[in-house]
Amino acid sequence: MDYYPFIMIIHVDMYVFWSYVLAIVSAIGVGLLVRLPLLPERPIRHSWTASAVFPTAIIAMGILAIFFKLGVNGFYYGLDLALAIGIITALSVKYFFDSIFPKPETEDSHE
Q1: 20 part of a folded domain
Q2: Range with the largest mean pLDDT of 4-18, 44-58, 91-105
């Protein structure tokens, strides 16, 4: 049995791993500094509140993945790029997220 494909799935460059961790930590940290709530309102499933965990950290990981796929790695193996993306993502979620993705109208607002 050939285990080579399985080994390639779990093989991750440590700089890439730490870049993702840094992007998540910087996005959540800056999100908390600009007064984003840590978690959305309850019930979370029906909440449209932007928070530090979701969508801030998720967007930071996605943008970092796009940059890595395009071959943009930054100067320090992607660590500087991850820090910048985390900061920019937190600020953009705080100030532009509601204008880009408006909250849906509820049944109460139609009356």
Answers
A1: no
A2: 91-105
